Amino acid sequence: MTVEFFNLAAIPATPWKNGGGSTRELACWPPGTGMDGFGWRVSVATIAAPGPFSAFPGVDRQIMLLEGDGVHLRGNGWEHALSERWQPFAFSGDEPVDCAMLGGPSTDFNLMLRRGAWSGQVQVLREAPLTAPAGLCMVLQGRWQGAARLLAPGQGFWWMDGQGGRIQPVDGESVLAWIALEKYE
Predict the structure, then answer these.
(1) Ramachandran quadrant class, 161 (left: phi over 0; alpha: psi -120 to 50; beta: rest)
(2) Most buried among 83, 163, 167, 175, using CB within 10 Å?
(3) Which superfamily is assigned to 11-117 in CATH?
């Protein structure tokens, strides 16, 4: 069983080519495959300026505001204000998406899934989740006990091929970003 811990504060930010923000990658499967070869990828991005999102053909995307004023997203025939914290929004990576700022910079939690290879969804939980054979979790608020560690906001882990998703809230104000992943056969 593979279990990998992360601490968002210790992950270096990679600036975007267009200068509009930066990304901190939490996990990418398979490891080392980069932006073109991943099956799934989870990251936290800081959006600092308006501009287009990159298109990812064949990829389903989910985004959730963590901090800041948020952004207004506009795709082909749809628009969405990502202005409420911890409210996931799904869209296709097949088409370019334009992003306008709703104020200052924002920080967002992002899931990308290769369509037809992996499925999953970002959930926000306040109680212990069911286990899953693969997935990722990150503490949003409070403290959680998971995989023999006490985790604080910005900390979490991802796992593959096992029951690594066992995690429990430590206090009544605990909130968790949870993704249970499933591979299509």
Answers:
(1) left
(2) 167
(3) Jelly Rolls (2.60.120.10)
